[in-house]
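Possible regression after last week's pipeline update?

I re-ran a chain I had predicted before the update to compare outputs. Posting the input and the new output here so someone can diff against the archived version. Not blocking, just want to make sure nothing changed silently.
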Amino acid sequence: MRVVAWLALGVVTVLQGCELGGDSCGGEPDCGPGPVDPLCAGEGSGYCAGDTQVNCYADGTSQYQSDCASEETPRTCVEGKLGIAFCAVSAEQDERCQGDPWPTLCDGGVLTICREGMVEEVRTCPGGACIVHDPMSFCALDTERDARCMVDGRPYLRELCDGAWMIRCIDGYAALLHECGEAGCGDDGENAWCY
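New output (post-update):
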């Protein structure tokens, strides 16, 4: 009976808060939705402000995503045909990147990732291990399959830890996924995560 009374009190309190225009943020100044961004026009897409990528949300608010020009290898912000802003090597169309789905290419150990007909990213793979794979080529740690990524002689899709690195197995190859840093990496034999 006491539980029911407490639940009823909780419901009444919440309803009173709604009726009185209660502050669900508890007075926190940076809590809750931000101001409507007129450039978002109420659509969940994004836009470029110079070389800054800005994401838009369905409620018309926006959030800074990244400064493409300040990356280690500077890129430029482009607004694709789908209305989503992203960082690309160039705003120019590249003939290698035409096709659907967007191609990924290996050339001399270098991975080129395409998006909407433009080069989104170019990566030099460690040890030249760019693996041609359908539907998407990728950088691996080695040009040979990794025993950790195989089960009974068959490629196994899983994630694992290698020191501070989280590794994803793709078709039996170990592909670098993410550096966890000082916090460290943990795995359960199937999935991995950063602490």
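Follow-up from reviewer: compared with the archived run. The chain has a mean pLDDT of 81. Marking as no regression found.
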